[in-house]
Write a structure and sequence with these properties.
The protein is an alpha/beta fold. The strands form three sheets. The chain has a four-stranded parallel sheet, sandwiched between helices. It has a four-stranded parallel sheet with strand order 8-7-9-10, sandwiched between helices. Helix 5 runs antiparallel to helix 6 and helix 6 packs parallel to helix 11. The radius of gyration is 21 Å and the shape is elongated. The N terminus is likely disordered.
């Protein structure tokens, strides 16, 4: 059963109105979704949503995923219903899901609208901050009837993140340029989840004030921003490849900035694994602090 109401808050509400298993949640559009029973057949329309379904303990209920859904290993063996640019609506319908999980900024808006018009129960998410990941795990657990597992996974995520925040967030600030692609050169502003990761580690995003979520910037702009370290990984598969790209920069000052590789799947997917990516980032920023202390100590 699907009943949509518009609202502004992005909170999870679970309640019992009668002796039943009814669950009500609000997605990131503000749409309220009521379920009379746990979802038995789920379709996840992004790789990060498929991963979160498994984290929430509902992997056995996942009927289909999209291209690049490769974690955990079980996700690779599931039927695929398209990719970020196009969802195969007919294939989704033939699978008869009782819950479709969509990504607001990652799926074509028209495809999501058509799925909803076809009567499918659609939950749309848009995690932008690190606490949103734990919230999403709990929400999917509530929809799938696996709250016991989901709540435990969400609590573990929160605890690991808090541990990193306590250890690193108040350390001496390190200015960071985060590269999400090299040609064109793309980065993130403060509204992006990656900027949240940098803050946990005591890092400051040199393009935090950019107007766009993922702006294109020039090498000259990076040089002017004076980052103390360059982080990235999407446009390379190994650390040496990323370093080689920056060693081709025309300015010697850019070539002198330390470059560190972060596996993209650990930081550019909104999943519990981002804690591992955050740990990598925190360790790199600590290296930069030590190098800075060593240089200053010699003066």
């Amino acid at each position: 059963m699907l009943r949509s109401l518009r609202g502004a808050a992005l909170v999870l509400a679970a309640f019992a109105t009668a002796p039943s298993t009814a669950v009500q949640v609000k997605d990131d559009r503000g749409v309220v979704i009521d379920a009379s029973a746990p979802a038995a057949r789920i379709v996840a329309l992004s790789p990060h949503l498929a991963e979160i379904v498994f984290a929430a303990g509902a992997g056995a209920q996942l009927a289909a995923v999209v291209r690049f859904s490769d974690y955990p290993e079980e996700a690779r063996r599931l039927p695929q219903v398209g990719d970020a640019s196009r969802i195969d609506l007919e294939r989704v319908l033939t699978l008869k899901p009782d819950l479709v999980l969509g990504w607001q900024s990652g799926n074509p808006a028209g495809d999501l609208e058509r799925l909803e018009r076809l009567g499918l129960r659609l939950f749309v998410s848009e995690p932008r901050r690190l606490p949103d990941i734990a919230r999403l795990i709990r929400t999917i657990g509530a929809l799938a009837g696996t709250s016991a597992v989901a709540d435990k996974a969400a609590a573990a995520f929160d605890n690991e993140l808090d541990s990193l925040r306590v250890r690193y967030s108040t350390r001496a600030a390190v200015s960071v340029f985060y590269e999400i692609w090299h040609r064109p050169l793309l980065t993130v502003n403060r509204a992006h989840l990656i900027s949240d990761v940098l803050a946990v580690c005591g890092g400051t995003n040199v393009f935090a004030n950019a107007a766009l979520l993922t702006p294109s910037v020039s090498l000259e702009a990076v040089l002017a921003a004076r980052p103390q370290v360059i982080l990235g990984g999407s446009s390379a598969t190994r650390a040496d490849q990323l370093i080689a790209q920056w060693q081709q920069a025309p300015a010697a000052a850019l070539r002198a900035i330390p470059v560190r590789y972060v596996p993209a799947d650990l930081i550019q997917r909104q999943t519990p694994r981002i804690v591992k990516g955050a740990r990598v980032v925190c360790e790199y920023l600590e290296e930069v602090r030590e190098m800075r202390t060593h240089v200053n100590g010699k003066r």
